[in-house]
Every structure is written in structure tokens, then in C-alpha cells.
Design brief:
- There is one protein chain.
- The protein has 105 residues and is mostly beta strands.
- It has no helices and six strands.
- The protein has one domain: GroES chaperonin (10 Kd Chaperonin, Protein Cpn10, Chain O, Roll).
- The chain has a six-stranded antiparallel β-sheet, with no helix packed on it.
């Protein structure tokens, strides 16, 4: 079975100030080495930006710059955005202002 590349190009363009994020995998082992069942795994609150919209228009009709770019690792709120499935993979669509921080490598 072929696997999808992590850096694949996706045919999906968010509108306005929305961002498509691939959530990180949930932790399956605790810090002390205990294997966690699915029911105990917390939903990840971080992920990789896969696609960004052009930015929303300000009151003068100019596009505002997006605070994130494709490839950025971000942290978002627990109840932020909407979950979707696209081409068999799970993603979140967030507004740019729902992103709490960028993770620097």
C-alpha cells in the first residue's frame, strides 16, 4: 500500500483568513511509558499548516497579511475551528485569529 508524503501538495484553497491544518498525531504512550488506549488519548492541539487563504480585506479594501505560512507548526485552542475529512485525511479549518502560536524549531 502506498503512503502519502508529508509534504504533498493539496488541491484545497481556504478563503479569506482561513487556514487548513493537519493535526499532529495523538500521543499513544505517556511520558512514563504507559501505552494509552484510544479513549484516554487527548486530541492534539497542534499541527502543520497545509494551506492558507489570501487574507481578509480590511475596511480600506486591502488584503491583510496572514500571520502563518504553509509548513508552519502551530498551536490552536481546544474548541477552535471545524474538523473536516479531505481525501481520506483529517484536517481542521481555522481562522487565523484562532491560532494561538507558531512553534519555532
Amino acid at each position: 500500500m502506498a503512503t502519502k508524503s508529508k509534504k504533498m501538495k493539496i488541491a484545497f484553497t481556504p478563503i479569506e483568513d482561513r487556514v487548513l491544518v493537519r493535526p499532529a498525531e495523538a500521543e499513544t504512550v505517556s511520558a512514563s511509558g504507559i501505552v494509552l488506549p484510544d479513549s484516554a488519548q487527548e486530541a492534539p492541539l497542534r499541527g502543520e499548516v497545509i494551506a492558507v487563504g489570501p487574507g481578509r480585506l480590511n475596511k480600506d479594501g486591502e488584503r491583510m497579511e496572514m500571520p502563518v505560512a504553509v509548513g508552519d507548526q502551530v498551536v490552536y485552542g481546544k474548541y477552535s475551528g471545524n474538523e473536516i475529512e479531505f481525501d481520506g485525511d483529517d484536517y481542521k479549518i481555522l481562522r487565523a485569529d484562532e491560532i494561538l502560536a507558531k512553534i519555532q524549531d
